């Protein structure tokens, strides 16, 4: 059975993440399947709207910790030619979120154009638990109030009900209404003049908030500001179902030597 399944219904292309025994975690085979499915969607002139959903109790649990431990390094591996994940897709994508959307699974959701979720679905931005910098940008990209974005960045979990209240989700439904509601939204998009649909989606994507370049450089420095052995320790503890034994910093004084915007700009000046 394929880890990513597809189904055509007229101009609508349903993509199902189908690794329920691993909560649809993003292993290499899974990522290749997504890349192939979205490439088919992009290149087919007969397909206009995609619905992305999952099987089982999770939409996508994010990084496959087992594969990371086998590789001996964190992350999901080398980038693939996936037009959806690489922000190269010109066609709209509707997320039909059937359950847990954690870490990389949350990042999949935030790339979609419209979102419908089942009541009780759980969301989490997991960077604070797995890296040396929490997901500072996700709440910003979603246009959330600063204190809600801070809660998100620090790895707190959100229910679908909460994210609907703050405007991250478009629809909140019972499980048996999830796919029909997503199809209703897709059918509405197909009633629009084709150029209007494509141009409007393109324009709305251009208007998404972005993190300023200097803040992105600061984030890159903060991602390396600490004992990087904690990256694998977090994954090992998760896999072994135990409390992690974090070290924090190679030098305890480093916690007080934070990179700053000024130091980043100074480094840029010296490089030039």
- Quick check: average pLDDT? 94
Could you say what the CATH topology of the largest domain is called?
Answer: 2-enoyl-CoA Hydratase, Chain A, domain 1
Q: Report the portion of residues in β strands.
A: 15-25%
CATH superfamily of the largest domain: 2-enoyl-CoA Hydratase, Chain A, domain 1
> Helix count?
12
Can you tag this structure with a few keywords?
single chain, 4-stranded mixed beta sheet, alpha/beta, 41% helix, 272 residues, 6-stranded mixed beta sheet, 2-enoyl-CoA Hydratase, Chain A, domain 1, 16% strand, 2 domains, 12 helices
Q: Quick gist of this model?
A:
This protein is an alpha/beta fold and 272 residues long. It has helices spanning 28-43, 65-71, 104-111, 127-130, 138-141, 146-153, 160-165, 178-190, 194-206, 213-222, 229-240, 261-271; strands at 4-9, 12-17, 49-54, 58-60, 93-97, 100-102, 114-118, 122-124, 157-159, 171-173.
Structure, explained:
The structure is a single chain. The protein is an alpha/beta fold and 272 residues long. It folds into two domains: 4-206, Alpha-Beta Complex (2-enoyl-CoA Hydratase, Chain A, domain 1), CATH 3.90.226.10; 213-271, no CATH class. The protein has twelve helices and ten strands. The strands form two sheets. A six-stranded mixed beta sheet has the order 1-2-3-5-7-10, sandwiched between helices. Strands 4-6-8-9 form a four-stranded mixed beta sheet. Strand 1 and strand 2 form a beta hairpin. Helix 2 (65-71) crosses helix 11 (229-240). The longest helix is centred in the N-terminal third of the chain and has 16 residues, at 28-43. The relative contact order is 0.11. The model has no long low-confidence stretch (mean pLDDT 94).
């Amino acid at each position: 059975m394929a880890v990513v399944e597809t189904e055509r219904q007229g101009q609508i292309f349903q993509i199902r993440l189908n690794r329920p025994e691993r909560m649809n975690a993003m292993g290499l085979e899974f990522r290749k399947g997504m890349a192939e499915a979205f490439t088919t969607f992009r290149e087919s002139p007969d397909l206009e709207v995609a619905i992305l959903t999952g099987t089982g109790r999770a939409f996508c649990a994010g990084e496959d910790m087992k594969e990371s431990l086998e590789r001996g390094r964190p992350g999901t591996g080398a980038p693939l030619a996936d037009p959806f994940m690489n922000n190269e897709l010109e066609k709209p994508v509707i997320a039909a979120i059937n359950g847990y959307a954690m870490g990389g699974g949350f990042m999949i959701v935030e790339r979609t154009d419209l979102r419908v979720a089942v009541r009780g679905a759980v969301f989490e931005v997991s960077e604070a638990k797995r890296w040396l910098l929490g997901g500072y940008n996700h709440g910003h990209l979603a246009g959330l109030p600063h204190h809600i974005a801070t809660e998100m960045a620090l790895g707190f979990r959100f229910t679908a009900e909460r994210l609907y209240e703050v405007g991250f989700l478009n629809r909140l439904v019972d499980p048996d209404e999830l796919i029909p509601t997503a199809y209703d939204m897709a059918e509405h998009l197909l009633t629009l003049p084709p150029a209007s649909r494509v141009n409007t989606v393109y324009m709305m994507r251009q208007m998404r908030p972005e993190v300023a370049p200097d803040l992105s450089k600061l984030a890159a420095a903060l991602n390396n500001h600490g004992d990087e052995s904690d990256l694998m320790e977090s994954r090992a503890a998760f896999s072994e179902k135990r409390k992690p034994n974090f070290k924090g910093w190679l030098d305890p004084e480093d916690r007080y030597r934070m990179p700053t915007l000024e130091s980043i700009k100074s480094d840029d000046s010296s490089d030039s």
